[in-house]
Amino acid sequence: MNTTTTPPHKIIGVAVIWNDQQQILIDRRRPGGVMGGLWEFPGGKIEPGETVEQCIQREIYEELGIFIEVGECLITIDHTYTHLRVTLTVHHCRLLKGIPQPLECDEVRWVTVDELEDFTFPEANSEIIAALKRVGEMRTVDG
User: Which residue of 3, 70, 72, 91 is most buried, as measured by CB atoms within 10 A?
Assistant: First the structure.
């Protein structure tokens, strides 16, 4: 009998939503759940038959009540927690319409890339932040 159990695998579409002030939208998970109280980039599980882009648009509307445009992929991350394996497909997105509401989270906040370090994120998110910093440095260099 095989006693090693592999944790469930979730494929998650993640949005790095930019506004016109070059700030990124983050939200804080509700306390009590898994990784409750931590900040995250919004997104959610891809449903059967959905593209990553469709998933991100749907989740962002459901969680935050805003309309976004999904742009290019920033990074894909495979991460295994003790209870769960996740594949995060992270896309740059742009706010098109609406004001973010914390419909399924505790709080939402617009922050700059540099301010991201002031917030506590789940472990897998550190690679997203590192990728954003690299992009930010490239933007600075390119003018």
Answer: 91
